[in-house]
Amino acid sequence: HEYFVFYDGDTVAGWAYGEMHDPETYFMSNTAILETYRRRGLYSRFLSHFIGYLTALGYERVTSTHQPNNSAILIAKLKAGFVMSGVILDERWSAQVQMTYHIHTDRQRGFSQAFSLEIPTRD
Question: Residues 6 or more apart from 11 whose CB is under 8 A from it?
Answer without folding.
Answer: none
